Amino acid sequence: MKLRILLITLLLSSLATAAFEQWTSADGRTATMNLLSVTEVGGELVGRFSLRSGKVVELKAGDLSAEDAKRLTEWKPDRVGARGTGGDSVFDDFFEGNLLRLDGKTLESCDVPEPEKYYIFYYTASWCGPCQRYTPSLVKWYNENKNDHFEIVVITWDQNTREMKDYAVSKKMPWTILKQSKADDFQKKFPHQVSGIPSVITCGLDGKIVSRTESLAELGQLVK
């Protein structure tokens, strides 16, 4: 019963993302989820699904439509190292409820992204001259190279939210942005030892730093 209630809640709130697929419950309701794994419990297949927030639920084959129950029997991991086989990111709990994305000329709350391999943290600020020159190139690179392997998250060194918003709007930033009020806490929890900006730190889902480079050519090779 708890599983059914949770599924119904999902159906009312979920939106599709590139890494997710639509699933249908036994009573005909639909939800967008990512199938992580399939196991057999008591003779019945059980699918382990992730939500866009990074939370995980388990649904029995009997909770799904006949067609989707069959999908459980056919499931195979399709990408080694993908989010579905590599587990949740160490950043997910911190990001929950603290990420923003540009919507026109305003910053709106957004869900935790689900990159398959990397988070690219862009330390920047509106008052930083080199950042003002570098950001348009990074925006262009992101728009041309975005795939499921990575997501950029801005960690701002601006002093207030208004400065951060105006900066995001002026540069048409397409990526996620950590709330300005959470930037200091993030840097304490995940000390990337950034001494100057602009600075680009690429981390695996386990939080380990895999690259310290602002070179767009090198980033392009990394996220292929």
Question: Quick gist of this model?
Answer:
This protein has 224 residues and is of the alpha+beta class.
How would you summarize the topology of this molecule?
Layout (H helix, E strand, L loop, with lengths): L1 H12 L7 E4 L5 E12 L2 E7 L5 E5 L5 H9 L8 H4 L5 H4 L3 E5 L2 E4 L8 E7 L4 H17 L4 E7 L4 H11 L4 E3 L4 H7 L9 E6 L4 E4 L3 H7 L2
Parallel strand pairs: 7-8, 8-9
Antiparallel strand pairs: 1-2, 2-3, 3-4, 5-6, 5-9, 7-10, 10-11
Please characterize this protein's 3D structure.
The chain is α+β, with helices and mostly antiparallel strands and 224 residues long. It folds into 2 domains: 2-85, no CATH class; 92-222, Glutaredoxin, CATH 3.40.30.10. 32% of the residues lie in helices and 29% in strands. The radius of gyration is 19 Å and the shape is elongated. The termini are far apart. Mean pLDDT is 84; it is low at 5-18 and 78-82.
Keywords for this structure?
single chain, 224 residues, alpha+beta, Glutaredoxin, 2 domains
Helix content: 25-40%
Placed side by side, the strands forming the largest sheet appear as: 6-5-9-8-7-10-11
End-to-end distance: 42 Å
Number of helices: 8
CATH superfamily heading of the largest domain: Glutaredoxin
Shape: elongated
